[in-house]
Amino acid sequence: MKIRILTLLLSVTALHAAAQYAVDQIPAALKTRANAVIRDMETTVDMRAPNDVGTRVRKVLTVLNKNGREHARLVLMYSKNSSIKYVRGQILNEFGIPKAKFNLSDFEDESAVDGGTLFSDSRLKHFLPNEDVYPYTVIYEYEERERQNLVLPQWLPNPGFDISVEKSQFTFLARAEDTFRINALNFAGKPVEELNDKQKKLTWSAAGLPAVRAEAYGPHPESFRPSVRIAADKFYYHGFTGKYSNWEELGGWLYENFLKSRRKLSPYTEGLVADMVKDLPDEKAKARKLYQYMQQKMRYISVQIGVGGFQPIPAAEVDQMAYGDCKGLVNYMQALLDVAGIESYYCVVSAGNYKKSLIPNFPGVEQGNHVILCLPLKGDTTWLECTSQKAPFGFLGDFTDDRTVLACTPGGGKLLRTPKLTAAQNTQLRTANFKVAENGTMTGSVETAFAGSQYDAHLTIANMQDKERLEKLKEQYDVDNIELNDIRFSTKEGTGPVFVENFNCTLPLYATGSTDNIYLPVNPFNRQNSIPDLRTRTMPLYLNRGYTDVDSIVYHIPAAWQMKVKPADQTIETKFGTYKVTIVQSGSQLIFKRTMQMNEGNFLASDYESFSQFISKIAELDRSRAIFTKGQSGSGK
């Protein structure tokens, strides 16, 4: 009888466990727009000591369909200073019944080195369930150990698009005497605190977070996703100890411990540099010369060994090897400038197309992912990108423009702002001249000048191999059967660098005809595409960077063609930007001019509908056609 009761209890327990993670137990609201659901996630970060931080995670995730498959992937990093203590898990079917188990031996192991990394002591283990029947649930349990607390794990209860959260909990444990700072973004809830004479315990919880859909022209995810960051006031990192509570202290510590002693060059190189700049008239001319020397001598490659994530390789070693990562190349450029007596600042930045500034009141070295150089020349602050062999002196592109950075100086850290690239600076100015043959084929020349962020976007084409370059240009100039030849590139210096692209081209049978009419699309190259009409948009509208495009094209029309319909001139003005197109007939010439300026800015989600209408109208006008007849007069329109 006792055995039967025990068996019954075990069966009931198993059924309850199965029912707990059955897919039909997920609230309907959490399935909306979701490809996966985090059913339950518990993360505990235990800072036992500055050099002993453990992270335990239990994560239950249901994959609803094949589009959510990647959400089930687990990637764990390890190195000489971090380890994976254990991993175990299981896979459940849609009814919550276990169907398979796995452990660390089932994970793939590979180096964390990528194509741009020469040295790294980091490796990774990763696992993705080999399931093709949906839905299914995966349970992960694992523990990691870090021998540092300079960078602590952060809590992101909702880690991506198209995934909802049933329940998530984050616990941080520390010794009673430890002090730390907390930064909670987009999260109004307060942590539950438990304090005693031995330990501090803080727990954050979130539940019922719906899936967020990725939407065109959306803001950076950090602007709306909830997160909690923690930074210890006193830290240990690869044998170094320190403390900071503001950017000034952090920048000062980085300078004193990671930077100050790394800028010494050999006597030979110092003599070479001194001789190189001795006859130049001012600091800017000297800096330009040294920057060009550095670009010609060096190549970029990532180095991530030991403290290499934050500390540059000594300048003398970089000089000898003729390569370095962003840290090493910035430090090397500083060393060259030191010889010339020119002050410079090593600056930590969060790089990327989105303009992401450092958090002003929450210092943390992990907020940066790149390093650039600032020269505080008198009345002419100059910024340098040191990883590019082609970037012009003093030019920062859209990878690092218009954001706050941390300058590490002998006097401590300073928050500075990089220059802004405006719509008036981010230009694409195109002129073209075409002769149209009787059969509709066009031949002519095209010149396009790119500046600002558009310079940055097109410079890479010049460095491609011929075949790759031709394919890329044909992709950009998307006209059927276009033939490009005599392709040339050049750069010009002015108030900012300009990249100029020239080519000759043939557009076979571009103007098409019927018995009575010939149709000539007046805008062959710069046609705006429509964007999704999201009437239920939830995200704010974010236009990341403004720009100005001007296209001026002259068509030489056959003498026998007579204008029948000329597209009307158009002007559209909105808060998002302006669009203007004019078409003038002058004898046998048809002169087309299109000007489009987009403004950057943050707008309400409700503004998206009018923005979509603005873009759709431009897309319609960009496909306008002039209509001609042969050998007979027609009226203009």
TrEMBL record:
The keyword Signal applies. Coiled coil: none annotated. Residues 1-17 form the signal peptide. Residues 55-212 form the DUF3857 domain. The keyword Signal applies. It comes from Pedobacter yulinensis. Keywords: Signal. Pfam families: DUF3857, DUF3858. Residues 536-623 form the DUF3858 domain. This is DUF3857 domain-containing protein. SUPFAM superfamilies: Cysteine proteinases.
